[in-house]
Amino acid sequence: MRVVAAMSGGVDSAVAAARMIDAGHDVVGVHLALSQSAATLRESARGCCTIEDAGDARRVADQLGIPFYVWDMAERFKRDVVDDFVAEYAAGRTPNPCLRCNEKIKFAALLDKALALGFDAVATGHYAQVVERPDGGRELHRAVDPAKDQSYVLGVLDAEQLARAFFPLGDTHKPQVREEAAARGFYVARKPDSHDICFIQDGDTRGWLGRALGEAPGEIVDTDGTVLGEHRGAFAYTVGQRRGLGLRRPAADGQPRYVVEVRPEANQVVVGTADLLGVNAITGEHARWCGPAPVGVVTVGAQVRAHGEEFAAEARADGNRVEVRLRERIRGVAPGQSVVLYEGTRVVGSATIVASRLERAREAAR
């Protein structure tokens, strides 16, 4: 099989490419240039796609003896990931750019280009497993290493994309991957992992958004409308946030306050007590299924953060929409986040959260 190995310049994608070669595939290494003004050197474990990263990927490809190319997808990445990220925050939502990158770049733009050039599949260094069923269909499952599992950010893949995706590291724990890289003589064996948002290299999301959107001072209010303080941009706040509120006076009951709502139209941030954050029902749109869409009400596990806890739930799909009923309250569910549904270790699919609420009648019925 002819395979494009996406090589970021890190240890995971290096070992993934090597394993694809060991499996007998005809492999070509490709580094995605995603920045329109790539830095020369990586300054920290944050960020990626520097010229240094491209050089590290090329060095590994040379060691492996495979062709290597840099594909410029900076314009597409800016439009589909960065601009989307900015627009979502401006609208009072909390997006996950890694899911959008996997959906729009790595398993759309990259895969489409690979197929157009005559390749059969794409391999990446993501920690997840693809399991082939007896009927030849493929399923997406959690990685064996729970600390590195990335199935959540791959929950946007559909069956056709899974049919042409390889994740060679899904059956391995991260320390073993580093040991393998060192045994193969890869320079990147001890290179720090990238984390946080790759295009915000200093990790200051609030500052980055402020530069992108400009300051827009407004009110921080209590649920009854009482003004408690000021903010410099509602886009810098997300539901469930406690730190950085800068309130002028404490709550009368002394309880900590959290962001419970962001109102972009009024440019207000609403704060309240922790009990106002608990929800047990989620509505999602832009549903993506890693196989056939569920029929009727199905029992699932629901996860709303990349490395968050999975909660027991029931879900019902209705076209592009999905309703999720949780068996217990969970906190800090923000519009724009993704809810990813599981059946055991298998990823059923995902949807973008547009609303969440507390249905007390359901609690009383239990």
Structural Rg: 22 Å
Low-confidence stretches: 41-46
Q: Biggest β-sheet: count, sense, barrel? A: 6 strands, antiparallel, barrel
Indicate how many domains the architecture comprises.
3
Estimate the strand proportion. Answer: 25-35%
CATH class of the largest domain, named Alpha Beta
Beginning-to-end CA distance, first to last residue: 53 Å
The multimeric state of the shown protein is: single chain
CATH architecture of the largest domain: 3-Layer(aba) Sandwich
Which structural class is indicated by helix and strand composition?
Answer: alpha/beta
Mean pLDDT: 91
CATH superfamily of the largest domain: HUPs
Summarize the structure in words.
- This protein is of the alpha/beta class.
- It folds into 3 domains: 2-190, 3-Layer(aba) Sandwich (Rossmann fold); 215-276, Adenine nucleotide alpha hydrolases-like domains (SH3 type barrels, Roll); 278-365, Elongation Factor Tu (Ef-tu), domain 3 (Beta Barrel), CATH 2.40.30.10.
- It is built from 8 helices and 17 strands.
- It has helices spanning 11-22, 51-64, 74-90, 97-116, 159-162, 174-183, 205-213, 360-365; strands spanning 2-6, 26-33, 68-72, 121-123, 128-132, 138-142, 165-166, 218-222, 227-231, 258-263, 268-272, 279-289, 297-303, 311-318, 321-330, 338-343, 346-357.
- The strands form 4 sheets. The protein has a 6-stranded antiparallel barrel. Strands 3-2-1-4-7 form a 5-stranded parallel beta sheet, sandwiched between helices.
- β2 (26-33), α2 (51-64) and β3 (68-72) form a beta-alpha-beta unit.
- It is globular, with a radius of gyration of 22 Å.
- The chain starts with a strand and ends with a helix.
- Residues 41-46 have low confidence and may be disordered.
